[in-house]
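Journal club side-thread
Mid-discussion, someone asked how the predicted structure for our own chain would compare to the paper's figures. Pasting it here so we can look after the session.
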Amino acid sequence: MSPTNDALMGGYQPGTSYCEMTAQNRAGDAGMAALMARLQNLSIEELQTRAGRVDREFYNLGITFTVYSEADAIDRVLPFDVVPRVLTAKEWDVLEAGVVQRVAAINAFLTDIYSDRKILADGVVPSDLVLQNKNYRPAAEGVKVPHNAYVNICGIDLIRDADGIFRVLEDNARTPSGVSYVIENRHMMLRVFADLFGDTGVRAVDDYGMQLHRAMTEMVPAETVDPSVVLLSPGIYNSAFFEHVFLAREMGVALVEGRDLFVAEDDCVYMNTIGGAERVHAIYRRVDDDFLDPEVFREDSLLGVPGLVRAWRAGKVAIANAIGTGVADDKAIYAYMPRIIKYYLDQDAILPNVETHLCREVEGLQYTLDNLADLVVKPVGESGGYGMLIGPKSTAEEVEEFRAKLQADPANYISQPTIDLSVSPTVTQDGLRPRHVDLRPFAITGESTWVLPGGLTRVALKEGSLVVNSSQGGGSKDTWVLNQ
């Protein structure tokens, strides 16, 4: 029986979008067929009932995130759809290789621009795009980090287009978030939907914390015998505080705030404990550069540690991700990533970019202005889906308002075609319906790079919406990578 003919999938019509479950080249996959067979044993009412149980469990366990823009909804459960998104082993092999390649190129790029700047001298990337970038940090110039691993934790946002081709949408090289939901989603699925797994051979995601701790200890100063690692959080009011607690627990390290640490006269970092000061060798920081050290960045910051940059530059402590990595996830730099990969690795990009127009360039700006109603336009230094225009989803008035912003500051924007993102069957009040998804695999780098099998599948829960960000109403799904 075709997957689209069973009762549960009745009324399911993905339209022109590539469907992660029912696309012609996917329906014949053995693992997909096994999942479909198990789903057919459940009614939509059963799925909805179990989905309600999942929501209550997430709330009771405090697995939440904070929405700053909604004063009456400070702590919110990230909506979770119980129908998993499945990747075959063959698909994953390509994605994993592409992510490892991309991370290698990003780290080579950061090593270069903070030292020799060969890529700028050779004209591959415009100098002003790097040296005048708001995320470029002169404080990082000349700093040699172990294994040239500036980006230890990287999230690469991928989409799949209408032809079923995975493309890179964004690089997240500062403090990518969301991995805690990947792991908790799996725990919840195993608890509430154990009957879906059967013998499908889904790869585990439980060792992320161990891999993260391994990478952190590989970054500590060379003479370290018994490395001490901490996770530095802005505190309980940060939107990702749950994740900070989760990752500290998974690594088995102390969760600290800036007030818990200090830099002594020997330029080493210490943690205040009830037993006295203890040396800290590596810090997984979830505090942005601007707030990390009031001696170097914002003087009014109470979140950071005075002297931390001094300690880092002296090689007395490792900081992950390193200071200044934000320049690599700037959306204008993203446009140059295929050339950056070719320059450092002499390879073609395994995962292609989405076609991108730089509005800082005359041709790119004119093309964008001429086709504004058909394009997605993004500010280069923002994240979370804020400040962007989705032309086909906007009113004529909104398009004209955005045109004025674009003309006033063209260098701040890029534009891309509106991609028909792939869809995945998602539980709604009307049954399973297609909703657009993306994918954020997470890579951890110390001496080498390891990629968590799967990653965070985000889903736009509103019909027809292309915005999957949790801060704007998106949810998540469990991502299965099959063994074979």
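Post-session note: The radius of gyration is 23 Å.
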